[in-house]
Amino acid sequence: MENVVVLIVGVGPAGLATAACLSQFSIPYLIVECESCSASLWRNRAYDRLKLHLAKEFCELPHMSYPLDAPTYIPKTLFVKYLDDYVERFNIQPKYLTSVESSTFDDDEKCWSIMAHDMAKSTIVRFTTKFLVVASGENSAENIPMTPGL
Question: Which partner for 11 in 33, 57, 122, 132 could form a disulfide, CB atoms 3.0-4.6 Å apart?
């Protein structure tokens, strides 16, 4: 069982931004992703001519602006490159091919217990974490944990 302070589920823009912000405060985290790459929706499921529908100023991730010469509406290829550059700049090291199967909160220990499937090794891995960030994207199947008061 691996014990981490923060577990981030998802390596899209929200998960990457969370990881970068935690890094800025030297808060340890682990970031996992069920796909084999970051921003898989943008890389594998978006059409090539797609552009962000908001101006770049509204789509920047924390602590890193777009280049000054970037177009107002960022095309898919530049957005994916921006995300790759973001991963490199903040030294984000995702654990790919790791699918979270369940999460339960332990009231006594005040921590989350996570069971995940490491698809690369075909094994089950377990994590405990004080904080769980679900950044798996709006297209993921929802799985809302049963937490009293939530």
Answer: 33
Q: Which amino acid is at 101?
A: E
Q: What is the DSSP string of 10-31?
A: --SHHHHHHHHHHHHTT--EEE
Question: Quick check: 61 pLDDT over 80?
Answer: yes
- Can you tell me the distance from the alpha carbon of 16 to that of 20, in angstroms, rounded to the nearest whole number? 6
With H, G, I as helix, E, B as strand and everything else as coil, classify residue 113: strand
Topology classification of domain 2-134:
FAD/NAD(P)-binding domain (3.50.50)
Written as six digits, the tokens of 44 are 């594998």
Cβ atoms of 8 and 30 closer than 8 Å? yes
pTM: 0.90
Q: Convert the pLDDT of each residue in 13-54 to its tens digit.
A: 999 999 999 999 999 999 999 999 999 988 998 999 999 999
- Quick one: pLDDT at residue 150? 66
The whole-angstrom separation of Cα 149 and Cα 57 is 36
Q: How far apart are CA 58 and CA 118, in angstroms?
A: 35
Backbone φ and ψ of 15, nearest 5°: -65, -40
Q: Cα–Cα distance between 139 and 150 in angstroms, integer?
A: 22
